[in-house]
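Crash report, auto-generated. Payload:
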Amino acid sequence: MAQKITPRATDYSQWYIDIVINAKLADYAPVKGCMVVRPRGYALWERIQQGLDGLFKATGHVNAYFPLLIPESFIKKEAEHVEGFAPELAVVTHAGGEKLEEPLVIRPTSETIIWSMYKKWIQSYRDLPILINQWCNIIRWEKRTRLFLRTTEFLWQEGHTAHATSAEAEEETLRMLGVYRTFAEEYMAVPVLHGVKTDSEKFAGAVRTYCIEAMMQDRKSLQAGTSHYLGQNFAKAFDVTFQTKDKTLDHVWATSWGASTRLIGAIIMAHSDDKGLVLPPRLAPIEVVIVPIFKNETKDAVVAFARKLRDTLAADFRVLLDEDDQNTPGWKFSEYELQGIPVRLEVGPRDMEKGQVVAVRRDTGEKAFIPVSEAGATLRALMQAIQTSLYQRALKFRTDNTFRARDYAELGKFLDDPGGFVEAGWCGDAACEARVKEETKATIRLLPLDKKETGGVPCVVCGKSARDIAVFGRAY
RNA sequence: CGGGCUGUAGCGCAGUUGGUAGCGCGUUCGGUUCGGGACCGAAAGGCCGGCGGUUCAAACCCGCCCAGCCCGACCA
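Recovered output after restart:
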C-alpha cells in the first residue's frame, strides 16, 4: 500500500507528517515553508472557525478586515514589537514595476495597522470599547517549518480590542483566554493548562501574555492560543488618546488574542493513532460514514436501505454514504479510519434483515449492533461518548506525565524520562529560567493562573525562595 | 542559518566497474469479486530535483543551487 503510516513508536515526527499527507489534510507548496491546505484540512479549519467565531460573537465581538500590507514605519513604532518581529518579516520593496518609496511589510500580526486606524476612530470614552476580530492569513519567515505547526504563511484569527480602563482590558484578556480554553476542551477535546508567560516568552509589545498549553502524545507542549494584555503600549506608539468621563485625556488600553491553523496540529497530535487521524465529533467535518456491504445481486436493496438511513440521519448529523462499488468494504474501513471519521456504520444484507446497523467507533474500534429505529438517538449518545472519552484519555495522559521536581537534578530527570510537564519552584529570575533552557532545552511553558501555593519551596535552580510554581516542558 | 540524511513513473523503492532505466502499489480498459486495504488479463505512464563541469558517453564522477526530513540556534 502506498498509504502507510509510520507508527508513533518508530518515529513520532514522521508519524505526524504521514497523517497530514495521507489523510490529505495538507500538502507541501512550491514555496519553501508554505503549505496547501487541502479540502479535508480546510473543512476542519472551517469547523474550527465556526466554533470560535460563535464564541467571539457571544462575547460581543465583531469581525472586520484590515490590509495585508503594512507600511514599514508602522512596525517600527513600538520598540519591543519591531525588535521581536524584525527577523521574521517579509517585505515588499517593488510594485508596479518600480521601487516603492516606503517598503511594505506583509503582516506578521496586525497590531500596528489596526492601531493606526483606532487613532482615527477613537476620541471619547463613548467610542470605547472597540471589540474587533479578523480572520486572515499572516506571514512570518520561519527558519524551520512543520505542516500546520509552523509554516511561513498561516491562517489565524486575531482579536484587537480597545478599552477605557486598564481593568477592563485585563478582564477582556482573561475572558478571551477563557474562550480559548473552552474551545480547546469542549470542542477539540484537548485539555489545556492556562496561565501567564514569563517575560522572555511574552509577545513582543505586550505587557503580559497569557496562553493555553496542551500536551501532545510525545509529551511535548504545544501553545494553542495566546491572549495579550497590551496596556497602553500601542496606544502610546500610535498616539491614541481619548477623553475620559471626567474630561481628562488618557491613552487607550488594549488587548490582542490569536489562534491559528496550528490548532489542527494540536487535534492531530492529541488524538490520532497509528491507523490515522482521530477527530473529535464536534469538529469532524463528517461525523458518520455509512459503508454499504453488498454483492451484485444484493446491491440495489442494500444501497436503497443505506440511502434511507442516510436521509434519516442527515437532519441531525454530517453524514457521508459511500456507494462506490469498485473498492471493497475492507478498503473503505481503512480509508475512513485514516480520515478520522468518528463513527462508521456498516450495513449489509444480514443487518437489513434484522433491521439493524453495525456502528464502529473510530477511537476505540468498539462495535455495536443498533436497531435502525434507534440509530439517531444511539449515534447522538455515541458522539457524546467519543467526545468525552477523547478528552478524558488526553487528560489522563497529561496527568500521568506531569511531575513535581524538588530539585534541579529531578527536573532534568523528569524532562528526559519520561518527559512531560514538570512543576517546580521558580524565583522569578530570568537567569534561572535561561539556565534551564540552556541545559535542558525546556522552557517555562507558563505560570499557572490558578496559582498553586509555593508552600515555601525553593527555586529549582538557585535555591532562593520561589515566587511561583512554574510548569517546565519541551515545546513545539 | 549551521550539522546530518534524502531526491529515479502518482506513491514506495531498486539500478553492479559510467554505455540513454526497472520492480511493487496505484492509474486506465475488460472481466470476475465484495462483512477488514480482492483477483485475472491488457495498457498507459520518465528531461533520473535544477543548472553547470569531466567524458566518445553521466541516474551513476565533480561543483553550485533548490526542495523535503532529522538534530541544533530562532519563533504561533
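Post-recovery validation: The longest helix of chain A spans residues 375-400.
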